[in-house]
Amino acid sequence: MPGRFLHVGPVIIDVVMAVDALPRAGEGVFASSAHTLAGGGFNVIAAAARAGMEVVYAGAHGSGPHGDLARAALRSEGVPVAHAPDPDADTGFCVALVDGDAERTFVTRLGAEMDLSLDELRTLRPGPGDFVYTVGYSLLPGPRADDLLAWIGELPEGTRLVLDPAPVVGDLPAQVLDRVLARVDLLSLSAGEAATMTGRADPEGAAPLLVHRIRPGGVVVVRDSANGCVVAEPGGVPQRVPGFPVRAVDTNGAGDAHVGVFTAAVADGLAPLEAARRANAACALAVTRRGPATCPTAEETDALLEEYGGGTAGP
User: pLDDT exceeding 90 applies to what percent of the chain?
Assistant: First the structure.
């Protein structure tokens, strides 16, 4: 049976507003639409759950209205929470501006989701076959990052660690990044993040450099927007898995959809290249919909893959 997906990163609230273009400094614009939804780590959780994986939200959350909204969203996906809410703080939020080219700009206020203690982490007890997911935001300097690193070091051998380093990867101390990478089994990151980590702007050049920094036998996936992704495994030549041609209207949460579906596919026994093609298909559908957590169901992903030839190597 596929293992569980234990998400120890932050779930926050996204306030998503669509604008024609970003305002210049000192100016303002009107949004054509606005939505307040669970976001951040919720996007990955929803993607993995809709792909058929058993998911547990094992991160921290607050007791205020934002925390209530986050828990309601998790319940709607059939995802339980592992910890009680923080009685003294609310969950944080992010204002996401989506412009006419479907590009995103963020302003974030962090909250209770960043306060996950070592004692709380030690109650989780992941087992063989389980996947633990974390993100670069949880590794930013502070005592809770130290707690997370200590717990990661205690993970049992059969538990696989998934890391998305996020746009903050350049702000992570080198020793922290090296320490967590040494335990990572699945590294999924954007082409820009891969360039920050390696100095290589081309995903085919960055991916093999990153394989040597993660756990032996691990897999690196460099997400390259509409161009699909590049998959690298130890001892092999990096392989580009093409994307699917769609008209994007909102790329918010696209990377999260990719890593969630990829992990679920690997947990279900698919080889990394097959899992990457499935993740590309889910990501393509996600960007045709407005909102942060727009990952399709497994059935919708199956339908797109069938449209483009089922198990073939590319669209």
Answer: 84
Produce one character per residue of 228-261: b if its CB has 16 or more CB atoms within 10 Å, e if not. bbbbbbeeeebbbbbbbebebebbbbbbbbbbbb
Confidence check: pLDDT of 314 > 60: no
Which pLDDT tens digit goes with each residue over 69-105?
Answer: 999 999 999 999 999 999 999 999 999 898 998 787 8
In-domain check, residue 122? yes
Domain assignment present for 105:
no
For residue 129, give its domain range: 40-58+114-307
Write down the pLDDT at residue 310. 60
- Give yes or no for a contact between 206 and 198, defined as CB atoms under 8 angstroms apart: yes
The DSSP secondary-structure symbol of 169 reads G
CA distances from 165 to 184, 192, 220, 255, 312 (A): 11, 11, 12, 11, 30
From edge to edge, which strands make up the β-sheet containing 104-109? Answer: 33-40, 11-18, 93-98, 104-109
CA–centroid distance for 119 within its chain: 24
Are 13 and 227 in contact, with CB atoms under 8 Å apart? Answer: no
Token duo for residue 176 = 């922290």
In the chain the beta strands, taken as DSSP E runs, fall at 5-7, 11-18, 33-40, 55-57, 93-98, 104-109, 131-135, 160-164, 186-190, 219-223, 229-232, 239-241
> What is the dihedral sign for C-alpha 216, 195, 189, 7?
positive
Here the CATH number for the domain that contains residue 301 is 3.40.1190.20
